[in-house]
């Protein structure tokens, strides 16, 4: 190896180590270097570099750890809720959009090893990639530090979302909430048109929520259910906003109406009428 190439390799390793130190500081845990590298390796990078190990197995593991910790927390903090409500609370916390927002809070996208193709299409901010990588990092912390450490990390990152989920109201099940709203507004029953793209092992679903033949919102997700929920949320917000605007306009029109005095005269018009000509 030439001196220049050796220097380049050494500099790259130093940059990687520095980057990992920064991420570990945000996580609050040191993770064995090779394990963290794998957790941050998207398959697009692996394929472009000779078939390196990807983060997909760690993602699978981290998804289970995250689900366990969140489910355990909800079970203990809501002893009176039935299974169906607990499932809705969990879905409000464990979904690609929520995970992506947590990942953005860590600036996780800047640490991911991406292939040139994904890099060029904005992969560092894609919700699915951020969510998958965060799960892989949780899996890496679990393997390196154990369940207690992984659980503490999940609580630190997700407890605000868990607390917020208890007060979501309509957000616990957007599809049900949308159906209730459209019934109230006399718009009919919502329907969902779903398309899917991508390979079998990583499909992306896109849903459009339509009511009376009109599309009110779209959503994407790693499952059909998640895409439909996001589309329903978008549609619910659009229809709710329109209904609120109509209500405000009606109230403004009502308060602008002339006020009549007790004799039936219109007090808003004080001009005397001209006498009729003979």
From TrEMBL:
Gene name per UniProt: rnc
Compartment(s): Cytoplasm
UniProt keyword Chloroplast present: no
Chief localisation class: cytoplasm
Biological processes per GO annotation: mRNA processing; regulation of gene expression; rRNA processing; tRNA processing
Name assigned to this protein: Ribonuclease 3
Family the entry assigns: Belongs to the ribonuclease III family.
Cross-referenced PANTHER family: RIBONUCLEASE 3 (PTHR11207:SF0), RIBONUCLEASE III (PTHR11207)
Family annotation (InterPro entries): dsRBD_dom (IPR014720), RNase_III (IPR011907), RNase_III_dom (IPR000999), RNase_III_sf (IPR036389)
Organism domain of life: Bacteria
Active site positions: 63, 135
Coiled-coil annotated residue ranges, if any: none
Subunit structure: Homodimer.
One MF term in the entry's GO annotations: rRNA binding
Record domain DRBM: where: 173-241
Organism, as annotated: Streptomyces lasalocidi
Summary of the function given for this chain in its UniProt record: Digests double-stranded RNA. Involved in the processing of primary rRNA transcript to yield the immediate precursors to the large and small rRNAs (23S and 16S). Processes some mRNAs, and tRNAs when they are encoded in the rRNA operon. Processes pre-crRNA and tracrRNA of type II CRISPR loci if present in the organism.
GO cellular component assignments: cytoplasm
Catalyzed reactions: Endonucleolytic cleavage to 5'-phosphomonoester
Coiled coil keyword on record: no
Record-listed E.C. numbers: 3.1.26.3
Domain (RNase III): residue spans on this chain: 20-146
């Amino acid at each position: 190896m030439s001196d220049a190439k050796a220097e380049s390799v050494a500099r790259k390793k130093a940059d990687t180590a520095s980057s990992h130190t920064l991420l570990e500081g945000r996580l609050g845990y040191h993770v064995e270097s090779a394990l963290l590298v794998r957790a941050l390796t998207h398959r697009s990078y692996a394929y472009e570099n000779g078939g390196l190990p990807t983060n997909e197995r760690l993602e699978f593991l981290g998804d289970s750890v995250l689900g366990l910790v969140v489910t355990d927390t909800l079970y203990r903090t809501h002893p009176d809720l039935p299974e169906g409500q607990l499932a809705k609370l969990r879905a409000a916390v464990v979904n690609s959009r929520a995970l992506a927002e947590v990942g953005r809070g860590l600036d996780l996208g800047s640490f991911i090893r991406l292939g040139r193709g994904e890099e060029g299409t904005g992969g560092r901010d894609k919700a699915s990639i951020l969510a998958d990588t965060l799960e892989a990092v949780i899996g890496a912390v679990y393997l390196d530090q154990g369940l207690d450490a992984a659980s503490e990390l999940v609580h630190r990152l997700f407890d605000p979302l868990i607390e917020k989920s208890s007060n979501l109201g309509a957000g616990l099940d957007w599809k049900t909430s949308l159906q209730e709203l459209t019934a109230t507004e006399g718009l009919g029953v919502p329907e969902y048109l779903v398309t899917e793209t991508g390979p079998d092992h990583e499909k992306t679903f896109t849903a459009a929520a339509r009511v009376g033949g009109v599309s009110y919102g779209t959503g994407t997700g790693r499952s059909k259910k998640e895409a439909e929920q996001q589309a329903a949320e978008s549609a619910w917000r659009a229809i709710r906003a329109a209904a609120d605007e109509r209500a405000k306009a009606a109230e403004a029109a009502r308060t602008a109406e002339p006020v009549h005095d007790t004799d039936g005269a219109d007090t808003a018009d004080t001009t005397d009428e001209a006498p009729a000509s003979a």
